[in-house]
């Protein structure tokens, strides 16, 4: 992933938020599945 972003800090923060959001969805789906 070599994407040129104007703000490296913002890009890293956005990626972190996306990862946490995906994990939240996976955990939520697991709890709903049970």
Automatic annotation (TrEMBL):
This is YjcZ family sporulation protein. Its main location: membrane. GO terms for cellular component: membrane. The keyword Membrane applies. Transmembrane segments: none annotated. It is a single-pass membrane protein. It is found in: Membrane. Keywords: Membrane, Transmembrane, Transmembrane helix. Belongs to the SscA family. It comes from Metabacillus sediminilitoris. It comes from the Bacteria. It holds the Pfam family YjcZ_2. InterPro entries: YjcZ-like.
